[in-house]
Amino acid sequence: MNRILSVFAVLLLSIAGAWADGYDPQNPPDPYISFKLTVSASPSEAGYVSGGGRYKEGQQVQLSTSPKANYDFLYWTCDGVQVSDQASFSYTMPQKPVNLVAVYAFNPTNPQEPTPATSSYRLYLESNMAGSCTFNITSGAKQNANQYITVSAQNVSQGFTFLGWYEGENKVSESLSFQYLMPASNVTLTARFEYDPTNPDDPPTSQTDIDNPVATKGDVDGDGDVTAQDASLVLQLVAGKITSSTPGVIYEAADVDGDNDVTAQDASLILQHVAGKITIGN
User: Fold this and answer.
1) Mind listing the pLDDT tens digit for each residue in 113-144?
2) Whole-angstrom Cα distance, residue 70 to residue 106?
3) How many Å apart are CA 244 and CA 7, to the nearest integer?
4) N or C: the chain end with fewer CB closer than 10 Å?
């Protein structure tokens, strides 16, 4: 027992001697340490960010951001201090957790305001005198803005003189047909005319004027000959089956005897004329 104690005492003295000589065994190395890198946008709805994660000290990290509609990128900050004005850049990870923020500014004019959906407008065509003409395009039809449109007044009626195309009180053309630059709004163009009864002559007002300017007694149907057909028309007038306004009937020619009345007597005179017994004169 005494021997064991002696050996143990020797070992303790050896260790104590080694410490006294400055023995200092090296500590084991630190384990691998990483730090958290957080990325975000300000305002949060302004853009997209990428590059966040855990990295060790000195590691190069590629950070990137891109804007959403109506926002402009300004710069990156770390703890309120600007670190880069590039949307994408390489960041050196420090020996601590960090939070990087992509700062944006609201800009409602970027992207450019969209153009209006409506780019065509209605072009109305009218005449100041009804029945004076027709038009080459349908009045009220939509036309593309900022394009030239051919506008034409056609089939001008006899006796009408063209004065010009007007937009309100402003004359835009003196020609029946012209190129009109369509504005970005609805517009009305008016073809103005005046009626000139002397050039050419007044248009005829009735079938009588057209077919028989001077009524021939007995020629009721206006065919240039007095026949039994004319006597038949007189009898139909007397019976009320036709009237003075019936197309193809010249009422003045039916009054053969000139008494300002159409009677069976007038039909009798026509038949006597056809038979050669009498001659009807105007």
Assistant:
1) 455 555 899 999 999 988 889 999 988 899 99
2) 6
3) 163
4) N
